[in-house]
Amino acid sequence: MLKTPAIRAQSQGIKLSAIGALLVLLFLLPQQTLALANKFRVIWYQDPASTAVIAWDQVSGEDPVVHIDVNDFGDDIAEYGLKKRADIVRPAKGMNNYFVRLKGLIPNMTYYFIVKDSEGQSRRLFFTTAPSNPEQRLSIIAGGDSRNHREARRDANLLVAKLKPHCVMFGGDFTGGDTAEEWQEWFEDWQVSIAKDGRVTPIIVTRGNHEKDNQTLVDLFDLDNPGAYYAFSIGSNLARIYTLNTLIPAGGSQKEWLEGDLRSYSDVAWKLSQYHHPMRPHTEKKGERNDLVTYWAPLFEKHGMNLAVECDAHVAKSTYPIRPDNGADSDEGFVRDDQRGTVYVGEGCWGAPLRENNDDKSWTRASGSFNHFNWIFIDQSRIEIRVVKTDGAEMVAEVKPSNIFIPPVGLSIWNPPTGDVIVIERKEGQNPFRNEEILVARGSASQDMHSKQGMGSDNPLLESRELDNWEACPMITANAQNGEITLKFTLDERSPVVVRLVNSDLKEVFQKEFGEHEPGEHLKRFGLGLLAPGRYLAIIKDDRKILRRYRVIKN
Question: What percentage of the chain has pLDDT greater than the value 90?
Fold first, then answer.
């Protein structure tokens, strides 16, 4: 069990009384040995608010164990509350790739970890889970093609450390030849993306044509889909990220899965995709991908794909919103459509050899040829994309942790004649919550609610485990304008669901029973109505157990 601040405080007196003895021991003990665990990465391929994979190369030493906690105990490994061994080890590319799969994590929570083995322990690192609150703005870096020039690759990696995004969407072609030596160098260079304070940015990986098969990504990043295509939502229903595979048929099972998933998540506010080969590359050196236009582009239009990040061509490009069309006004099978179109950006310059941008279209917004990645901000009203030139990263300052959305001093943002910020606005009439059930919670002003519920901390319906460790629950804040909150939960099997709200006096102020729900992710939207400003606990249960709990703040 992870140690809470309360447990830490209880031991404070003991620690202080032992400081003198510890200082003496520090001079008598030999210097701590670092474990030969390196090439760290944190991977997202499922719900990033509650899951993550910690991976590394175990060079030597035996029985490595990850020690992890929500409190930062520095190098004092004995204080870390949870220990976990690898779920699977995959020897590949000359490395012993250890994977620790973490589940049941708290959204928007920082987890500190150390790997300890028979020879010593690693440096203290940490990562942060994705937020589950759709009102929290996201920062994402997206790009790919890092295969040749290590200096350029390391520059881009260093900017990841300095810009501190929620995650990196990486579009494939990690190395040139998919060899053991190249991959070991790639992971050595990826350590540059780890900030000086130990912050590891989670990566979402895509297969490129220089990865010889899908198994490479399974072996090195623990992908759970052997087809190397997958999707997950981030920020509850704020956005859904699709990772597609252009190295297997675009039609068939991949197209069927994509269409089904897009249809199932129609309530998501924004949809983003990443894949390796561009549909219409902006250099004459690369061929057209008519199959992607045939199978994917119509689905992008039909289901509202807002942004597609492409790679492979080694140029920089952005388009106006476009959709497939073969009419008289079309260009290479697309027309500009600001209402129904998808914005395409790319095309992969994380260190691969640059090519000439000599194949613009009528709907091209801008193109160029330079090392870069895309810096993407997402909130409920808009997506903003900035193209960051990555050379000379040493001269760039770090973002301020208090506001990671302000470009730091020295950051070079591409500013073509069409402007330095690409903005995708939410269209009038679009409602990211249109498929959710809307309820109104009524507080003390509702006599009916009081008459139907037992009130007070002695309510037999309230179990102690429902109220324990309240402060450790993820926090969501009601919308200041309409008082609405969105609750997310996952069912493992078909079951009825009940949602309850408890105030700070441990009085239940709202309860709603629902019918049977199918397994999977679900969202419930509530207007807090007449509830007074304050702190509440939302409890979501099926017929057997607690599914999720949230701290709710109404200002």
Answer: 69
What's the pTM value of the predicted model, to 2 decimals? 0.74
Q: Are the CB atoms for 263 and 298 separated by under 8 Å?
A: no
Q: Residue 255 corresponds to which tokens in the numbers above? A: 């197209």
Distances (CA, A) of 256 to 271, 299, 324: 17, 10, 19
Tokens coding 302: 């039909």
Residues 464, 466, 470, 472: is their CA dihedral positive or negative? positive
Q: Which residue has the tokens 């009524």?
A: 442
Closest Cα partner for 403 from 139, 203, 107, 125? 139
d(CA 444, CA 168): 46
Pairing state between β 138-143 and 167-170: parallel
Lowest-confidence region among 153-167, 300-314, 381-395, 522-536: 522-536
Residue 309 bridge partners (DSSP):
274, 345
**Distance of alpha carbon 504 from alpha carbon 383, whole angstroms:** 37
Alpha helices in 320-470 (DSSP H): 447-452, 464-467
Reduced to 3 states, what is the DSSP secondary structure of residue 488? strand
Residue of 142, 144, 141 lying closest to 312 (CA atoms): 144
Query: Count of CB atoms within 10 A of residue 401's CB?
Result: 9
Give the type of residue at 372. H
- Give the C-alpha separation, 379 to 20, whole Å: 51
Q: What's the token pair of residue 221?
A: 């990043």
Sign of CA dihedral 79, 85, 86, 89: positive
Let me know: does 122 contact 112? Beta carbons within 8 Å.
no
Among candidates 361, 338, 348, 300, which has minimal Cα distance to 423? 338
Tokens of 555: 């200002």
